[in-house]
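The instructor's notes for this session suggest beginning with a concrete chain rather than abstract definitions. Hand out the sequence below and ask the class to guess, before any prediction is shown, which regions might be ordered.
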Amino acid sequence: MPEMTLLGWFHTILGILAVSTGFYTLYKYRIISTKESSGRLYVLVTLLVAGSALGIYNQGGFGVAHVLAVLTLIALSGGYIMEKYKWFGSFSKYFQALGYTSTLLFHMIPAITDFLRRLPVGDPFIDSFEDPLLLNFHFAFLIVYVVGIIVQMFWLKRQIIQI
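After discussion, reveal the predicted structure:
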């Protein structure tokens, strides 16, 4: 595994901040929204993390992490557009939740991959992208994401009914 560059450290530290802020915001408010300061911080830091990921090429070229960075930028843009301009009327908040929450999944996949490939130093947990431990983490994140989105959709629907 190549040594971490200064850009890699910047990306990693901001990534930890983004994931922490994202989960905190979901826990406290049930959705990520720029109306809340933690939501604004999450969106801004996630934008920086995705942008910095596009400048990291220590794996030999454009790879899965870059694709996830592009998907993150698309999901952030979609969430922001839905939140600000409500292109789909009352359904916009569902697309906002889908967009912003998807970015957490896009954070977690490369985060766990890099963690397991780097640590412990000198004897990492995995040595390939096909390792069952890594694939099980990815599958678990996908399940948590799908369940989380479903819970958010039901919560948003109840919010509309109560208004």
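Then share the key points. Helices lie at 6-29, 37-53, 64-85, 92-118, 132-162. The mean pLDDT is 94.
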